[in-house]
Design brief:
The complex is a heterotrimer of chains A (164), B (506) and C (334). Chain A contains six helices and no strands. Chain A has 164 residues and is mainly α. Chain A folds into two domains: 7-79, no CATH class; 86-160, no CATH class. The longest helix of chain A has 38 residues, at 86-123. In chain C, helix 3 packs antiparallel against helix 11. Chain C is globular and about 65 Å long.
């Protein structure tokens, strides 16, 4: 029965192929000397994406490509990092994203201690006191090194008059 | 006579270095270099740019001591964070992460640091020795390499991608394709047009390399660490001094890797635009090819640390070749350093070495001394540094992310860089998770732009005639080498497979 | 390292920011209060360079900044800041949008900065609207060939009867435009090889033989002539610096005398007149600063100072020379 071996990897490769198509169209909007090479790379992306997707299917063609390319499904599954629960994953990405967004508005000096404290306390489950002390130490070190020693202005945040 | 001149200049430079102020500035440079090197997001260019205005009015020789000190120490500093927290301090140290960090995880961080430091020193010294040796030939060397040669070197580098995919051939190529796609963003100086900028000013100049690399290697690793939790190393074996010296010994055992890395570093450093990152990655793949146990690369093979670290220091000597010959910067640090020269009334150009030989020798000497001093400092503090691997990840992650982003912002004071780094951090994590090699993306990103530009330039020069790549001596040799690089591994694996297939028949 | 550590930011504002952030108060952005004449300058001035470190404009700004600092009525720092990108347009676009409070000024490459508009490209800055502060220097161009080249004069170039290869950095560059002007005036067909990273790079390319000849500022070519690598063919100066190199006037085209790369200082549009006056006066004073004169002589750069009004007039005059040839200035593969 034909089916998918690993749906996540398969969808990613298909997604890549689709992006390749979009990119080809995008490259086509530029005059010839600017768009030729990108267009070629776009085609390459589509072909590679489709081939890669093929290796994650249970078809004869897929098996042939897998042998050519030299990796087996068993190897893949053995090497794959164990997926933690979605919550940990989402949080690990979410925290830095939130940090950057906050820095955009409030600047580094204001946001960094808050970020470190909250991350350590809420996500890392450390004690509040330990988190506060660590975050203060790190922020002070950053401040001393950049603003004081090297006179580099840290980003002040949109709220305080800085502009992009 | 050139020889006595050089000897005089060297002695004069030595004289300056041993004065109290001279050595003070050298030490300051080394410390600054180490600090900036080990903090992700910062690096040599930031350090030089920051200290440049402070040196106005300083005596030129002392300024050279300072900046030579910085340049020689930066990649040593970067190797520390690469090994301990899988976060390259500077872009060229990214290759050191591949085997340095696994060693740290096995509790062998001391060995890795010891090896990295000594490899850096010897690599740096070899780079400088080659530089000094070719001083009479400087101009001729630079004149040998024009756009067709640069293009072939870029292609050669891109083929290194095909070889370096480490078992993920298709995904490696896809990552390379993405690297090229990113390389096409921005202003193309050959045709004068702007591409793929999504309507923003920020992307006018394309994807800035340092924020992208910081995100791809530093921030992504922090996200991965955040997901896995715990501490980096589960054992406290690494704190003993003995293991550091074991690392030092390993460098001499694997002297071939060391030599190869140094040579690659010097040559690549001498080619303007390629820089330390390419040198380190190429040296890594080369080390893998000559190793007796290539399959252990990526899991903690010390050769994978020695090669890149030798390369990223050797490149300092190499990058001085075009800089001293004609005032063409061989690397990003050299480009900023040219500003320093201007500030001190030393005009970069073909007369620099002739009119200011003494000052330049101060620089070269400072660079050499810095390699050695940086290593000594590192070896001494190594046992304390490795304690970082025992620090709880939940403190490390936000601290490193914050420091990296602050450092990235400090580069050009553009918040867009911070956003870029964060975005690449997420992309990098996804690449780790779904086993897309990041190395190939980086190589393609760096080389893609160079390749396209030099291709256009070469064709313009030849008025559209493609044979230009085959009619120039060096270019032709590079074509042959590239083809060789591509086919030899294929032939080898075919031979291996045939042997395996023959055995059952016996 | 004297005054920098001491003038670092005090602790007070940092605490204040933290408090405000924690309270998450109102979201209004602070707007700049109007600056009174006696107060300017009160904050550090960013002197923006549209190119990366190491080039001619970078050098000019770094040479002038200390002199400017000394000439300003109040003590502030003048900070050279490199904002390279898109052939210099990124920095100018930034100045176009910056607040007209005298804290950001830029050096501009003329007529390079005017070229994109001339060739009909959409650009993010308007030279007419910007505030002109001064002209700092003008570097006349020269055409040169490799020392071992068989080309001994411009007539030899014509005799080659083929396309002449001339390198430059990119289309936003004045050198490229000067090349076009030269080519059209002398009746030569040119193949412009763009894409080199800097002036030194393309001079070396010419030495290497990638190109037949190159157009570059006299001061930059000087060191290559002195080292014996290059030889001058014709110069656009009034009087030739190098023996044996004819002026363009002596070759029958005096209208091209003065073809140069000029360095102007620009400020954001609608900069108040009092700020312009202070800046202008400071630049005028700086131009006579003995330390600056000594440093520029060492760097072989010339000071050619013009005040605000004269600067704008001269710029318009130079632009007109190039406008006559603007048909050939655009991207070739359009």
């Amino acid at each position: 029965m034909t089916g998918l071996i690993e749906w996540r990897n398969f969808s990613i490769s298909i997604g890549i192929a689709i992006f390749g198509v979009i990119y080809i169209v995008w490259a086509g909007t530029y005059p010839r000397d600017l768009g030729t090479l990108p267009g070629l790379v776009g085609w390459l992306t589509v072909i590679l994406g489709l081939l890669d997707a093929l290796t994650y299917t249970d078809t004869a063609a897929g098996a042939k490509v897998r042998r050519l390319v030299g990796h087996t499904v068993e190897e893949d599954e053995a090497d794959a990092p164990k997926d933690k629960d979605w919550r940990t994953l989402g949080a690990s990405i979410g925290w830095p994203a939130a940090y950057v967004t906050a820095v955009a508005f409030f600047g580094f000096i204001a946001t960094t201690p808050v970020y470190i404290v909250l991350y350590m306390w809420l996500f890392g489950k450390r004690s509040l006191r330990f988190s506060l002390i660590s975050s203060l130490i790190v922020t002070v070190i950053i401040w001393i090194t950049f603003e004081y020693l090297f006179q580099y202005p840290l980003f002040d945040g949109l709220l305080f008059g800085a502009s992009f | 006579m050139p020889n006595t001149n050089m000897l005089e200049s060297t002695l004069a430079a030595l004289h300056v270095l041993f004065t109290p102020t001279g050595s003070m500035f050298l030490m300051l440079g080394v410390v600054v270099g180490l600090l900036f090197g080990c903090m992700p997001g910062l690096g040599g260019t930031t350090a030089i740019a920051l200290l440049m205005p402070l040196t106005y009015g300083m005596e030129s020789n002392e300024a050279m001591a300072l900046f030579g000190g910085i340049m020689g120490a930066v990649s040593a500093g970067g190797s520390i964070s690469a090994i301990l927290i899988n976060t390259p301090g500077t872009a060229p140290n990214a290759a050191t992460c591949f085997d340095g960090y696994p060693l740290a995880k096995q509790g062998k961080a001391g060995i890795a640091i010891g090896a990295a430091s000594v490899a850096s020193t010897i690599g740096g010294i070899i780079g400088v020795v080659v530089l000094v040796a070719v001083i009479p030939l400087l101009k001729s060397i630079v004149l040998l390499f024009g756009p067709p040669e640069f293009f072939m070197m870029a292609v050669m580098g891109l083929t290194a991608i095909a070889v370096s995919t480490g078992g993920q051939f298709l995904r490696g190529l896809i990552a390379a394709a993405f690297g090229l796609i990113l390389a096409f963003v921005g202003y193309d100086s050959v045709s004068g047009g702007i591409r793929f900028t999504l309507g923003t000013d920020y992307l006018w100049d394309g994807i800035s390399l340092v924020p992208a690399l910081t995100g791809l290697f530093a921030i992504s690793e922090m996200i991965a660490l955040s997901v896995s939790g715990g501490t980096i190393s589960s054992e406290a074996k690494s704190t003993r001094i003995v293991s550091v010296f074991e690392g030092v010994r390993a460098v001499f055992v694997h002297w071939k890797t060391l030599l190869q890395g140094s040579v690659i570093g010097t040559i690549i450093g001498a080619i303007p635009g390629l820089g330390g990152t390419v040198a380190a990655f190429l040296s890594y793949t080369a080390a893998q090819q000559i190793s007796k146990h290539p399959e252990t690369f990526g899991k903690g093979n010390i050769e994978g640390v020695i090669g890149p670290e030798a390369a990223n220091n050797a490149k300092d000597g190499g990058s001085l070749i075009p800089t001293l010959a004609f005032g063409i910067p061989g690397s990003a640090e050299m480009a900023v350093f040219l500003g320093v020269l201007v500030l001190h009334g030393l005009e970069p150009g073909p007369m620099l070495l002739i009119e200011h030989q003494g000052v330049m020798f101060s620089l070269i000497l400072a660079l050499t001394a810095s390699c050695i001093i940086a290593t000594l400092i590192t070896l001494v503090v190594a046992r304390y540094l490795v304690l970082i691997t025992l620090v709880d990840v939940h403190i490390l992650v936000p601290a490193v992310i914050a420091t990296s982003l602050v450092g990235v912002y400090a580069l050009k004071e553009t918040f867009g860089d911070v956003i870029l780094a964060a975005v690449f951090g997420i992309v990098g994590y996804l690449m780790i998770r779904f086993k897309f090699p990041r190395v190939t993306l980086v190589i393609a990103l760096i080389l893609g732009g160079i390749a396209e530009r030099t291709l256009h330039q070469s064709l313009n020069m030849a008025s559209g005639d493609w044979t230009i790549f085959f009619t120039r001596g060096i270019s032709l040799s590079l074509v042959i080498i590239t083809l060789g690089c591509l086919t030899i591994p294929a032939i080898q694996s075919l031979r291996r497979r045939r042997k395996l297939e023959e055995e059952p028949a016996e | 390292m004297q005054n920098t550590v001491l003038t670092s930011g005090p602790f007070g504002p940092v605490l204040a920011k933290a408090v405000i952030a924690a309270a998450v108060g109102a979201v209004t952005m602070t707007s700049p209060a109007p600056v009174r004449a006696a107060d300017y300058p009160s904050k550090n001035i960013e002197f923006v360079i549209p190119f990366s470190a190491g080039g001619g404009f970078d050098r000019t700004v770094r040479l002038w900044s200390p002199a400017l600092e000394r000439a300003l009525p109040h003590k502030v720092q003048v900070l050279p800041t490199n904002v390279p990108g898109a052939g210099g347009r990124k920095a100018l676009a930034m100045i176009m949008r910056a607040k007209p409070d005298g804290t950001k000024i830029a050096i501009a490459n003329m007529p390079g900065a005017a070229l994109p508009e001339m060739t009909g490209e959409k650009i993010e800055y308007d030279l007419d609207k910007m505030t002109w502060i001064a002209r700092l220097g003008a570097e006349p161009y020269m055409v040169a060939v490799p020392a071992k080249s068989s080309i001994k004069s411009v007539a030899d170039l014509k005799k080659l009867n083929r396309t002449i290869k001339i390198p430059s950095t990119d289309y936003g560059s004045t050198a490229f435009a000067a090349g076009v002007v030269f080519g059209e005036t002398m009746g030569l067909k040119l193949n412009q090889l763009t894409g080199y990273k800097g002036t030194n790079d393309y001079i070396v390319a010419t030495i290497r033989g990638d190109a037949d000849a190159c157009v570059a500022p006299v001061s930059t070519l000087a060191k290559f002539i002195k080292s014996g690598d290059m030889r001058g063919l014709v110069t656009f100066e009034d009087k030739s610096t190098f023996e044996g190199v004819p002026t363009i006037a002596s070759l029958g085209h005096p209208e091209l005398t003065g073809l140069a790369v000029e360095r102007y200082v620009l400020a954001p549009p609608k900069t108040p007149a009092n700020i312009v006056k202070v800046l202008s006066a400071a630049f005028a004073k700086a131009s006579t600063d003995p330390q600056l004169i000594e440093a520029t002589e060492k760097a072989k750069e010339e000071i050619a100072y013009l005040d605000a009004d004269a600067a704008k007039a001269q710029a318009e005059k130079s632009i007109k020379i190039y406008e006559k040839h603007k048909k050939l200035m655009g991207r070739p593969n359009d």
